[in-house]
Amino acid sequence: MMAASLDLHSLEQYCETLYNPSNQASRIQVESLLNYHFPTFSLSASTASTSSTTSVTASVAAALSGIDDDSLLKGHSPTINTPIESALYCRSLLENTKNPYALMQNLVEDHFSTFTTPEQLGLRTFVLRYIYQNPDAQSFVITAQAQLFALITKLGWIENEEFRALVDQIQVFFQPGAALIHRIIGIRLLTAVATEMNTPSNRHATKYRKIAVSFRDIQLLPVFQFALSMLQSSLLISDPEAEKFRESIMLLMRTCLSFDFIGTLPDESSDDTGSIQTPSSWRTIFEEPGYLDVLWECWKKFSSPNSVLVMELLSQAASIRRSLFSSDDARHSYIHHIMQETILTLKSSAGQSKLQDAGNFHELCRMLSKFRGTFQLTEICEFKDFEQWISLVGEFTTRGFHSWKWSPNSVPYLLTFWSKMVSSISSAKQSSQDYIQRITVDLSRAYLKSRMECAQASIDGEVDDPLESEEELISTLEMYATVARSKYVESGQCVAAEFKDLLKKHRGLIQTVTSRANSPSLGTSAIKEQLLVVEMQLTWLVYIIAALIGGRISYQSTSEQDQMDGEIASEVLGFIHQLQMWSAQRPLFIASADAHLYVQSAIIHFYTQFRSSYIGEESSKSVKVYTILGERWGLSGPNQMLDAIMNSSLGNLRSSGDPDWRKQEDQLVVRTLRLYTQLVAGYSSVKHIRKLDTTQALLKNHNSSDFRFLNPTSKSSDTAVARCRINYYAMLSRVLFSEDNVDADFWRFVKPWELTLDQVMLAFEGSSELGEEEIRLILLGIFKDLRGFVSSITNRKQYNLFFEWFYPAYTPIVLRAIEIWPHNELGIAILRFWNEFASNKSSRVTFDSSSPSGILLFRETSNILYTYGQNLLNRPLSNSGARWSEKYKGIMLYFSVLSASLSGKYANFGVFKLYGDKALDQVLEVFFSLMLAIPVEDMISFPKLAGAYFSMIDVFTTDHMTGLTMMPHPVLGYIFRALGEIVLLQNPDTSCSSMACSAIDKVCTFALNWIMKDKIRKDEDQEDLLPNGSPVLNSAGSPNNSQRSSIELTRGGPPTSNGGRPISKRRQHQQQQRQETHWLVDYLMASKEVLSYLFLVLFQVVAFENRSNYWSLSRPLLGLILLNRDFYVEYTNSFVQNQLPDRREKVQTAVNALMEGIEYNLSTLNRDRFTQNVTTFRRECAQMTLMSVDSTSEDNGML
User: Fold this and answer.
1) How far apart are the C-alpha atoms of 115 and 958, rounded to whole Å?
2) Where would a tag sit more exposed on the chain, N or C end, judged by fewer CB atoms within 10 A?
3) Where are the domains of the chain?
4) CB of 540 within 8 A of CB of 455?
C-alpha cells in the first residue's frame, strides 16, 4: 500500500532531500509535503509533541527563508484518516524501498495507545525483521530503526508481557552461525533499549519511571550478564571485525551500569555522581572474581581505543556501592582485588607501556578517583600491600603532575583522589597516616613545580593559560590545599622557599629594568619576558597560598599551622609591597595588561581567603598569624589587616587611561568591588571599615574622576562591568549606614549629588550652560548611583532619611527626564532606580500614621509611569527583531514598578477613589493598553517580561481587580488567555506558572464566595419581605417563585419588614445593590468558555505532566470545577469515553474519586481533601496509558 498521489521513486527522492537538502528552502518544502502524505496527527501545541513542534518550526523557517507560508501543504492527505493508516503507509514504504533515507516518521510516541495489542506487536516485529534483513544499511539507518524498536518496546512494556522477553526475542541475531555483523546489530539493539528505558521525560514521568523500574528488575541484569559472556567469548575471536564487536559489547555494558537505578537522574557529564546503586540481585556478579578478571584481562589484551573503554568499565566497577556486598569479607576481597591489579599495572612494564596511551592514563586516573570516593579509607588500609599500593599511586601521581602537558585533564582526578585520602586520614591507623602524609609532601612539591612550568609554557603559547579561568583554577587549588595541609609545615616551607627565591629574582630584574630605563633598546624583550615569567610564577604562588590559607578549618587548625599561614602570608604581603613600589616606576614598555590583571586578581583572591579564615568573630583565636604579621608588617590584628587590604586594593578602582588596558582594568574593578562587598557584609568588619581613614576619604569623595567606571560614557557589553557603578554605591551605602547616628554623614555624602542635580534643575529652567547630551549623561550616571545606594537601605530610618532628601526636591527631575528621553537608556535607568525606590523590602517604606508620604510616593510613581507608558504606546518599532530593546524592556520595567508599588502596602488606594484622584486609574489604564499591545506569544516567550507581567497580575488579582467598577472584556480575555498559555508552557522556571495559578485561584475564590454570599443575602432579604406564616414560604426553594413573590409584595405599597413596618430608603438602596451582580462574576457566568479553557489547561497539566510546582497547579482546579460543574461532568464523561474500552471502567472509577467527599466551598479543609484526591487520580493515571481530550485550542480560540 502506497500513497496514492505519489509513486515510490518520488517518495525516495523526497526522503533523500529531507536528509541531504541543497538549501533550507528545499528542505522545508519537502518536509511539508511528507507531513502531508504521512501525517502524525499530533496534538496541538498545548500538549507539545515532537512532530507538532517540527511543523511550527517549519513554518517559521519558511518565513525566514523567504518561502510563502501558503505554499506549504496544510492538513493531511484525504486518503489517510488515522495514525494507524499513516503508520501502515510508512511501513509500506520501508518494505518496498532500498533508499536509506526513507525512514518511518515518528508516529509511535504520540499515538501508540491507539494501536491494538496485535498492531503493536506487529509493528515491533516488522521493525525487528527490517533491521535483520538489512544489516548492510547505513549506520544512521540502523541507529534510527534501533531507536524506533526501543521506543516501541518501552511504550508496550507495562501492558504487553510479550515485550518483556527482550533477550529471547533478539536471539535470532546471535543464533549459531550468525554473521558477526548481525551480532553487532543485536548488541546495538540492546544498547538502544537500555538507553531509551533510562531516558527521562517531562511528560508522563511517573509512568516512564515505572517502566524503567520494571525493565531494571526484569531485563537489565540478564542483558548485562549476556553482554559479559559475549565479552568473554570475544577474547577468542580473531576476525578483523572483532574490534567493532568488542566495542559494541563494552558500550552496552557501560550503558547498563550507567542506568538510573534509583531515580536520581544523575548528570552523565559530571563525575560527581557518587556510587552506582546497583540492586541486590546484581550481587553475585561483583562478589565473584570472574567479573574483574575478565575486565583486567581485556584491558591487557585490547589495544586502544577499546582498552580505554575497558578502563571506563573498571572505573564503573570501582564505583559499585559498598552496601551491595553480602559481607565485609566479600567487600574487602573486591577492594583488594582492584588494588592488587592496580599494583601489577603500575609495576609491570606491560602496564607502563599501555599507560603511555593518553586515554588509558586518563581513565586510570578517573578510576582511582572513583575508587577512593566509593570505598572507605579504613577498608583500603586493611589491604596487606597497602603501603606498596599507595606508594605506587604516589609515584604515578607525581609522574602525572610532571606530565601535565600530555594529559592536563587528568590532574584534577589525581588531586581528587589525594584530597579524599587526606580528608578522612584521621580514621586510618597511625602508621598509615604517617605514610600518606610523607607522600603528600612529595606530591605538593611536584605539583608546585608543575605550576611553575605551566607559567612558562603559557607565556610561550604551548598551552592555554589556566589563569584565564579563575573559577576552575580556584576549584582545583582547593583540592591541592587539602593535600598540602596534611603535612603543612613541610609543604608550607616548600612553598615559602620557592616564593622567596622568585621574589628575590623579581627584585633583581626590577633593578635591571630600572637601571636601563633610559635605554629601552638594550635587551628590552629578553628582560620583559623574564620579568613576565617570574611575575606569572609569583601569581601562581599567590593563588596557591590563598588556597592554603583558605583551606584552614578553625576547629582543626593547630598553632603550628597558623604560624605557617602567617609566614607565607607575610611573603605575599612582601610581594604586594614590592609591586606597589615597582608600579610607580615601571616603564610603559615593560608593562603587560594581562599580567597586571592576573597578578592583582591573585592578590584579591588572597585577601578574600585571608578574610574568610582570619577576619571575623573567631579571629581572636588566631594569635599566631597576627604575631608574625605584626612583627614584619605591623599588622597585629584583623582591624589592621582590613586597613591594609583597603589601602592596597583601592588603586584597582583607578584607571591608567590606556585604552589597551581597559578590558583588563574593568575586570579588575569587578573583582575588587566583589571583595569590598564581602568585606562589608560582616557585622564587625563593616563597623571597623567605617572608621578607616581610607573609607572616610572615600565617603567624602566617592565620585572621584579617577574612577573610570563612574564615567557614564564608559560603556561595556559585559553585565558585570556595567553593574560596577551600582555595586560600588551599594557597598558605600552599606558602610555609611553601619552606624546608627549618620544624619550628618548622610547629608555630606549626598552633597555632590545635590550640586549636580541643582545644576540640572537650572538647566531645565534654562539658567545653565549644560548641553542636552551632557545633562543626559549626568542623569544616567546619577540614577545608577542612586539605584545602588537605595538597594542597601534596609530599615525605616534609613529610607526616611533618603526620602526626605529626594522628595520633593528632585522628583521633578525624574518626571522631566522621562518626558525628554523616554526612549533612551536613561529612561531604563530611571525606571530601574524607581523600581528599587518604590519597593517595600524589609518593610522599610513605613511612614507615620498621620503622614501622607505613602500616598504622595504612589502619586509620583503614577505620574512617571503614565508619562513613560504613553510614550511606549506611541513609540514605533524600527523592526520586529528590536522588540525587546526598543519596547518590551521598558514595558517589563513598567510592570515591575507598578507591581512593587501596588504590593508595597504604604498607600491606601481607597483614598484615590474617595477624592476622585486618577493616580491609580491612569496607571491601570496604561497597564491594560501596554498589555494588549503585546501578543500573548511574545508575553510568555520573553522570560523577564513574563516574570514581571505575571507578578503584576498576581498582585492585581489580590487587592485591586475586584475593586474596579468594570474592566474591558478584551483585557479580561487577554489576561485569562495568558494565564492559560503560561501554564501550558513547559519551562524549568515554574515561578510564572505558579503566579498564574495563584491569580486564577484568587479570581475563582472571589467569584465563588460572592455567589455564595449573594445567595445568603437574597435568602435573608426574602425572609424580610415575607410576613410570618405566608404561604409563599412554601415555594421559596424555587428562584423563579422567590422573585415573583418579591415583585408581587412590592406592588401594593411601600415595602414592609416581616413585622409589617415600612422599610427605609437606605434599606431599599442596600437591597438594590445586593441584587446587582458583581461585574467579574457576571463576566465569568456569561463567558463559561473562559472557565472551561482554564480547567482544561490545568487538568491536562496536572493529570498528564510532571511539574515541580504540582501543588500550585492543582489549587485552582476546585474553584474552576465548582463554578462550572456542567462542563466538568461533560468533559470527564468525554475523557472516559475517549479511552480504550478495556480501560474505561478503571478510568471512570478514578474520575469519580476526584470529587469524593468534596463540598461546595473553598475552605482549607475542602481544598486539602481535593488536593489529596487529585494526587490519587494522578497516581492512577500513571499506571495506565491514557489519551487526553484535546479541546484547549478550541477554547483558546473562543477567548
Assistant:
1) 48
2) N
3) 8-96, 750-934
4) yes
DSSP letter at 953 equals H
The overall pTM is greater than 0.90: no
Gap between the Cα atoms of 633 and 648, Å rounded: 13
List the alpha helices (DSSP H) in 462-592.
470-484, 488-515, 524-550, 559-585
* Cα distance between residue 698 and residue 704, in whole Å: 9
Q: Which residues contact 147 (CB under 8 A, 6 or more apart)?
A: 192, 196
Which residues are paired to 1105 by β-bridges? Answer: 203
Q: 63: how many CB neighbours lie within 10 A of its CB?
A: 12
- Separation between Cα atoms, residue 596 and residue 932, nearest integer Å: 53
Set of cell numbers at residue 296: 583486567
d(CA 941, CA 241) in angstroms, rounded, equals: 51
Give me the residue label for grid cell 478514578. Answer: 1150
Cα(352)–Cα(368) distance, rounded to whole angstroms? Answer: 16
Q: Which of 626, 611, 483 is nearest to 563 (CA)?
A: 626
DSSP 5-63: TS-HHHHHHHHHHHHS-SSHHHHHHHHHHHHHHS------GGG--HHHHHHHHHHHHHH
With cell 507560508, the residue in question is: 69
Q: Could you tell me if 790 and 852 are in contact, meaning their C-beta atoms sit under 8 angstroms apart?
A: no
Neighbours of 643 (CB within 10 A): 18
Residues 6+ apart with CB under 8 A from 1013: none
Q: Return the bridge partners of 276, or none.
A: 320
| Among 770, 774, 853, 779, residue whose Cα is nearest residue 819 | 779
The CA–CA distances, whole Å, from 875 to 871, 881, 930 equal 6, 15, 11
3-state secondary structure 1043-1062: HHHHHHHHHCCCCECCCCCE
C-beta of residue 1187 within 8 angstroms of C-beta of residue 1138: yes
In 3D, which of 482, 459, 478 has the Cα closest to residue 470?
478
All residues at 6 or more sequence positions from 1066 whose CB lies less than 8 Å from its CB, including other chains: none
Q: Which residues share a beta bridge with 1056?
A: 1062
- Per-run averaged pLDDT (10 residues), the chain, 1199 residues: 51 58 62 61 38 33 34 49 58 52 50 73 86 87 88 86 84 89 95 92 74 92 95 86 93 95 64 79 94 96 94 96 95 97 95 94 96 94 95 96 90 96 91 94 96 92 90 95 95 96 93 71 73 95 97 89 95 94 71 89 97 78 86 92 93 84 91 95 90 92 87 82 94 95 94 95 88 93 97 96 96 96 91 97 93 96 97 89 92 98 94 92 97 96 96 95 93 96 88 96 95 82 53 37 35 48 58 72 93 93 82 92 94 88 88 92 92 88 70 48
Cell of residue 190, nine digits: 540492546
Specify the long-range contacts of residues 772-776, CB closer than 8 Å, at least 24 apart: 772/820, 776/817, 776/821, 776/824, 776/826
- Residues facing residue 320 across a β-bridge: 276
Cell of 376: 572507605
Q: How many other C-beta atoms are found inside a 10 Å radius of the C-beta of residue 851?
A: 12
- Separation in Å, CA 855 to CA 119, 807, 906: 71, 13, 7
Sort 932 into a burial class: Cβ within 10 Å, 0-12 / 13-18 / 19+.
middle
> What b-and-e string marks burial along 1080-1107, b requiring 16 or more CB atoms within 10 Å of the CB?
bbebbeebebbbbbbbbbbbbbbbbbbb
Span between the terminal Cα atoms of the chain, in Å: 43
Distance CA 1093, CA 1124 (A): 11
Amino acid at 173: F
CA distance 814 to 818: 6
Grid cell at residue 15: 526522503
